[in-house]
Structure formats: structure tokens, C-alpha cells
Amino acid sequence: MQNKDNKELYIVGAPFAGGQGKQGVDEAPKLLLREGLETEIQNLGWNTHVSHLEFEEVKNDTPISNMKNPRFVSKAAEKVYDSVKAAAEKGFVLTVGGDHSIGAGTVAGVLAAHPEAVVLWIDAHADINTPAATQSGNIHGCPLSFPTGIDELPEDVEDGVFKWLPRKSLDFSRLAYIGLRDADEFEKSVIRKYNIAAYSMHDVDKYGIARVVEMALRRVNPGNTRPIHLSFDVDALDPFFAPSTGTPVRGGLTWREGCYICEAVAETGNLVAMDLVECNPHLGEHDEHIKSTLHSGIALVKSALGQTLL
Ligand SMILES: NC(=[NH2+])NCCC[C@H](N)C(=O)O
Ligand SMILES: [Mn+2]
Ligand SMILES: [Mn+2]
């Protein structure tokens, strides 16, 4: 079980863009640090340890099933997995992407260190397409298909792609979504079939963010006994607050709703790891867009790490 007095925090920079088609998302970790991410975290009383991963390119990375860059993404996510697993055994892990394909590594890494953990996936998208079902071929739309074990890649898949990742380590009863508004038809069918706790923007409008977080936590972590991994895709926020992202969708969370989710999860005392992904400083019409996206990301992290408003 997680030790609440442990104030060691490992920032894993994962500058990876191969899970989708737009360059720039790999520059976010360095820029977030330049905007003060680490000092802000230290100001909340954490001892920080920063590392930046490097990802080697893969030549002739032809599609496998419908997945683009399968070997490159699999190798990168495996590196993330190794680092997250090692860090999660020692303290809190904050993984800073990069695109959301690294979530395959963070989820598996957190579960390797904390097998009982639950996953909260805060996103406009469900990111649970299988290699065969993905329409775009972008693996940032697929990471949850692997730890849940619905990916259907054969055991002897070419070059051992995603072979390192333990399947079915994440049970559907331990996954909850908040913020959805652009799930693909296949993903909607997965959510229904496996009865995943999924709260869309419709639910946020209907119940308000406080009840949605409460309902989500009650579904996946009823006794509040399990460690929590919070995977936050910045595109869960409305593009007004996070315009510099690869797949923006209107009608998202407000700044406060995003921060509230993080604060409420922090209040459980069981948060052990967080991802912040999909900030892309190459996108957006002007500098203010980039700055506001990075600052939204930093605000979310601070809210998850103990910042209180009073
Ligand atoms: N992590 C993300 N931003 N994912 C967007 C995924 C969009 C779409 N569902 C796809 O599979 O291509
Ligand atoms: Mn998304
Ligand atoms: Mn995502």
C-alpha cells in the first residue's frame, strides 16, 4: 500500500510524438519544466527527481494491423513502463508526455508496482481502440486496449510488438473515464460491453463535476482502499483553456472542473501517479495559446499534488 508520508516525486519526461501525426507534442516536457513545473511541485513540499527519456527511431516501421509506427511506439512505451515501474516502487510518479500512447507504459508500470491500482482516464477521447479497430491508425487512440487485454494481437506478433505489456492487468471494473465527448463507435461498444464507468460531458452538465467525480470513484474504488493512477489528457479541457493540443474537441471541461477533478482525487489520499499528456506547443494560433495550455497543465498537476485554495 502507498505510504502517505512519502514525499519523493519522480518526474519522468517522455518526449514522444510517434503515437500520432503531429510534431511538437514531444517538446512539452522541456517547456513545462521551463515554465516552472518542478519548482511549483517543490513549493508543495515534494522532493523532486527529474529524468528525461530518449526514444530511438525505428527504420521501416511498417503498419501492423492498422497501427502506424507500431515498433517505435511499442519500444517507447516499454521504456516508459520500465521507468514508471521503478519510480512507482519508490514514490509518486508524474509522467509528462508526449502523446497519450505512452499511457500504455504508464498504466502497465503503475500496475506492476501497485497491482491493486485503479485508473482514472480524463480525456475527450476513450483511447481504447484496438489495433484492428483504429480508424486513424494513431496508437495514442489505443493505449487502453493493451492492459485491458482486448487488443487481440497474436502472441507471435511481428517483432514482439507490445509483447512486453502484461495483458489483463487492468480489469474493466477498475477503469473510469471523465470528460468524454468524442468516443468512436467501436469504443462506445467496448464501454457498453464491459460496463466501464464512463462519465461524458453530458454527465458533467447533468450532475456537476463534484457528483461525477464522486460517482466515478465510488464505482472503481468503493472503499477508497486502492491506489489511484490519474491519466490526464489536456484535451479533456475545453480548447478555450487548452488550445495547443493535437485533437481538440469543443464542449470540454472548464479550468476549474479540471482542477476540481485533481483536487478531489488528491483528497482521497490514494493518488500514486499522474500523467499529463498531449500539450503540443507547435499548435495554436499565437504564443498566448501555447502559454495558456502549458499553464493549464501545470495547474492540473499542482491541484493533484496537494495545492489547496485556502
Ligand atoms: N490521446 C488522444 N488525444 N487520442 C485521440 C484519439 C482520437 C481517435 N479516437 C483515434 O483513435 O484516432
Ligand atoms: Mn484526448
Ligand atoms: Mn488521450
Automatic annotation (TrEMBL):
One of its GO terms (cellular component) is cytosol. One of its GO terms (biological process) is arginine metabolic process. Binds 2 manganese ions per subunit. The keyword Hydrolase applies. Mn(2+) binds at H100, D123, H125, D127, D233, D235. GO terms for molecular function: arginase activity; manganese ion binding. It catalyses: L-arginine + H2O = urea + L-ornithine. Pfam families: Arginase. Keywords: Arginine metabolism, Hydrolase, Manganese, Metal-binding. Belongs to the arginase family. PANTHER family: ARGINASE. This is Arginase. The lineage of its organism: Eukaryota, Fungi, Dikarya, Ascomycota, Saccharomycotina.
